[in-house]
Amino acid sequence: MSMEQPPRRPLPIMKIIKYLMIGIAVITLYIWTFATIDVDLAKALERMQSNFQRIVPRLFDPEWDSLGKVWGMMVETLFIAYAGSLAAAILAVPLGFLAAINMTNSKILTTIGKWILSAIRAFPEIILAILFVVAVGPTPFAGILAIAIGSTGMLGKLYSEVLESIDMEVVQAMQANGSNGIQIMFHGIIPQVIPEFLSYAIYRFEIDVRASTVLGYVGAGGIGLLIFFASSNRNWNEMGMILLVIIVVVTVIDYVSSYIRKRIV
Fold first, then answer.
1. What are the TM regions of this chain, as residue ranges (predicted)?
2. 153 neighbors 114 (Cβ within 8 angstroms)
């Protein structure tokens, strides 16, 4: 015998008005944004159509002779992403502990930690890459530094949230039994957080691979340098090969990363 489900209550009139006002505000802001941009939309669309008709067919006819060169730069890009991501995964750990209130028990220290992580996240990787290219020269090391610093901010934030969500009863029980700080760290805290730490680090590597593909555009090494030369020389056939390699590599990394993260967590 099936039970009848109670009829759904209609949304209160105030909620309907609230959602309607939010929708109107979003649409108004969207229209205002286009109104403040000095652009002739009709001409822009016409020019885009003309360029697409000229460029897209050449993108779908990749220059296979450049495969070796493109693959070599893609490997360099992967190295930049891996080295930067690994450094960030390590640097983010102490900052994550500093920003977690249940690890420091100090609002001042936690506020400092969160402020540091927020300040780091304020700078996109491309801006960091420009700064490091000026500081250390146009080398892949500049790209590694940009990825490492940029990813540290986000990973540190995620790590702190993981730490704040652990079961503190385990820690308190160990403290009551006379365990010292090192024992609590390695037997009470790390076993709870390490799966999620690794999962976030691997996921961040996926993001960093994509970010690394454009760093070479400003001289920070990797396949972005080829993107710069191909676009500057209007060599759309080579650009097609570059995009093909990037798509294949990123797709494979996404698949492998998702598989590993599912096995870890």
1. 16-35, 79-103, 214-233, 239-260
2. no
Per-residue pLDDT tens digits for 22-49: 999 999 988 887 777 776 667 777 777 7
Residue ranges of alpha helices (H) inside 2-124 are 13-36, 41-59, 67-99, 101-104, 107-121
What predicted TM-score, i.e. pTM, was given to this entire model? 0.80
- CA proximity to 126, closest of 48, 240, 201, 227: 227
Tally Cβ neighbours within 10 Å of residue 162.
Answer: 19
> How many alpha carbons fall within 13 Å on the CB side of residue 240?
14
Average pLDDT for residues 148-159, to the nearest whole number?
94
Q: Is residue 4 one of the residues assigned to a domain?
A: no
Per DSSP, the chain holds a count of helices (H) and strands (E) of: 12, 0
Judge whether 31 lies within some domain.
Answer: no
CATH code assigned at 174: 1.10.3720.10
